[in-house]
Task: structure prediction
Amino acid sequence: MDADLQDSPDEIPELYRMITQEGYDLVSGWKQKRYDPLSKTLPTKLFNATARKVSGIKNLHDFNCGLKAYRKEVVKNIEVYGEMHRYIPYLAKNAGFKKIGEKVVHHQARKYGKTKFGLNRFVNGYLDLLSLWFLSRFGIKPMHFFGLLGSLMFIFGFIAVVIVGVSKLYYMHHGMPYRLVTDSPYFYLSLTSMIIGTQLFVAGFLGELISRNAPERNKYQIEENHLTMKKLVRLVILGAILCPIVSIAISCSEEADCSMTARSMVNCILYRVDPETQYVENDTLDSLTVTAYGTDSIIINNQKKVHDISLPLRYTEDSTKLIFKYSRTKSDTMVIRHTNTPYFLSMDCGYQMKQAITDVTCTRISLDSIYIKDNEAGIYGKENLKLFY
Result:
């Protein structure tokens, strides 16, 4: 009992009676009406609500009350260390003592001394609670915790690596820009996840070996390395904060420069020569569909009122063959010959392709001629080809 006289010794006989006559294993006091400042009562209510939820002792409202009575067997079978005194009911329950009661006790304002309650004690209380919960649930079966967590992380990392590899093969097969696997940050995140998963799984095995070889493995003991659990909780909290930040940063860098909109294109503008004045003027097609020859890729799908178009070039070949369909019965074929020169863009985007037009040929169904204005394909919309109809 504290020496500040906030708890009354007159409550002791009733607590004793509940133990000896009503058969309780443990009786805890409940300061239902408190005379403490709001800065202490509000955190205490939050703490007690969490302790009830975690411990499963639903009938206790004040785990931290200094007035408690116990049977001798309870005291002999629990181990209290550090600041675990506030969790004596939880320790007793874990040791097999289920009949835990509560009694409303009188509480009065502090007469002597100053409170030691602060943020440090509040945080330490939650860390101790997590420690007890972890030990009571996984103390004799650590593989259930570390093995499950390690397996999930390893599977997640393995699936992510497969996705990175398959996406590269897909882009290569379809002649789309791709990066090296080792240039992708997702590859290293996936590899890290697999390594951490393996380490957690091994930690579960080591925990099982230590647990099986403990001399008192068949007795229920509450032993825990307090500092280790604190570090574990802090690492989990830090990881939960940093993972979304890292994911957002990576996704932003991915979208910045490496999207398909940054692919080099051949920009074409349509022209016609006025038969009377012989002046060159812009032309407009009523309808146009452009497809890649030999594939089912549709580059332009039945676009109306066309006066300019942008065409991609293949990365895996030195020529690109395109079909221009104006109607069901009318079409032209265009063959663009070009060079493909890979170059390193950045760590995020890896290698890109620089493409230069060397020659252009076409059928002359509707197209009359093609003039190369700028042979280097780009992303800035500059005119490369003049298409005369």
In short: The longest strand covers residues 331-346. The two ends are 100 Å apart (CA to CA). Helices lie at 12-20, 38-55, 72-77, 88-94, 119-138, 142-173, 185-212, 226-257.
